[in-house]
Design a protein that fits this description.
The protein is built from eight helices and five strands, in the order E-H-E-H-H-E-H-H-E-H-H-E-H. Helices cover about 55% and strands about 15% of the residues. It has one domain: P-loop containing nucleotide triphosphate hydrolases (Rossmann fold, 3-Layer(aba) Sandwich), CATH 3.40.50. The protein has a five-stranded parallel β-sheet with strand order 2-3-1-4-5, with helices on both faces. By secondary structure, it is of the alpha/beta class.
């Protein structure tokens, strides 16, 4: 498989979506062929499943059901968007991927990491080349996330304790996968954060 697969991870409101967009713009200006995508979503079928996951009452689904829905969306995303782009030697930047399920359902929502890993191995079986984990204090991230009023705030409505568990889960993830997952300080302006993460990306382009 050619191409380069970069993912952005972080708790709600951490700024990862903004950083994914800014990185895609910078790489395109530099002449790279970039596909910017997101999870859940990134393909027509996965976008339909997205609405089931991010809208509605926080108690709408059990963690076990969420894992199944996320994997269904991810498989379609992988087949129809990510793998074809990588095969065409493109840079794929995804706002979330499998690490989100490892942290959200595997640690923060419930202790289901073994289930998450087993399904990932069976259904997905693909990891990013580089994962940029935007690290921001939970209170600030939650405030940002709720302020968006996007209608996709089901996870934000789980409250501050949940957001704190998310941050801890992502920090643990960076230690678990040190070869690809790197913590990036998410404080300051979007340009400040973009400046911090650019050298990490540039090192993978050489």
């Amino acid at each position: 498989m050619s191409g380069l697969f970069i993912t952005f991870e972080g708790a709600d409101g951490s700024g990862k979506s903004t950083q994914a967009r800014l990185l895609a713009e910078r790489l395109r200006v530099a002449g790279h062929d970039v596909v910017l995508t997101r999870e859940p979503g990134g393909s027509p079928g996965a976008e339909e499943i997205r609405r089931l996951l991010v809208e509605g009452d926080p108690a709408r689904w059990s963690p076990e059901t969420e894992i199944l829905l996320f994997n269904a969306a991810r498989r379609d995303h992988l087949e129809r968007t990510i793998l074809p782009a990588l095969a065409s030697d493109k840079i794929v930047i995804s706002d979330r991927f499998a690490d989100s399920t490892r942290v959200y359902q595997g640690a923060a929502r419930a202790d289901l990491r073994s289930v998450v890993d087993a399904l990932h191995s069976l259904i997905i079986g693909h990891e990013p080349d580089l994962t940029l984990v935007i690290d921001l204090d939970a209170a600030t991230g939650l405030q940002r996330g709720l302020a968006r009023q996007s209608g996709e705030d089901r996870f934000e409505e789980l409250g501050p304790d949940f957001q704190s568990r998310l941050r801890a889960g992502y920090r643990a993830l960076a230690h678990e996968f040190p070869n690809r997952a790197i913590l990036v300080d998410g404080s300051g302006s979007p340009d400040d954060v973009a400046t911090r993460l650019w050298p990490l990306v540039a090192a993978r382009l050489t």
